[in-house]
Specification:
Helices cover 20% and strands 32% of the residues. The protein is an alpha+beta fold and 105 residues long.
C-alpha cells in the first residue's frame, strides 16, 4: 500500500511539473533568442537621484553580435501617469533564453 501511494505521489508531482513548465510563455515574435544563460547580474553603485521624480533602472545583460554586453543602469524620470517600473529580465524557455523589456506600470 505504501509503495502504491509513493508511486501515485510521484505521478502527481510529474503531472504538476509538466503543467507548470507548459505555462511558461513562448518568446514573443521578433525576440532575440539566445542559446546560453546570461551571466550573473553585476552589482552597481547607485548614486543620488539627479532630482525628485527619478527612478533607478538597473543595468542588464544585452545580447550583441554573438556575446553578452553589459548595459549600465541609469536614472530616468518617472513617466507621467505611471507609478512603478517593471524591470526587464531574461526568461528561460526550453533550451533558449530571451529578453523581456522593462516597462512602466
Amino acid at each position: 500500500m505504501r509503495k502504491l501511494m509513493q508511486s501515485c505521489s510521484l505521478a502527481v508531482a510529474a503531472v504538476l511539473l509538466a503543467g507548470a513548465l507548459a505555462c511558461v510563455p513562448p518568446p514573443p515574435p521578433g525576440a532575440v533568442i539566445v542559446e546560453r544563460r546570461p551571466p550573473p547580474e553585476r552589482i552597481e553603485v547607485i548614486g543620488v537621484a539627479p532630482a525628485p521624480g527619478y527612478i533607478w533602472i538597473a543595468g542588464h545583460w544585452q545580447w550583441s553580435g554573438g556575446d553578452f554586453m553589459w548595459v549600465g543602469g541609469r536614472w530616468a524620470p518617472i513617466e507621467r501617469g505611471y507609478r512603478t517600473w517593471e524591470p526587464g529580465h531574461w526568461r528561460h524557455h526550453g533550451h533558449e533564453w530571451y529578453w523581456v523589456e522593462g516597462h512602466w506600470r
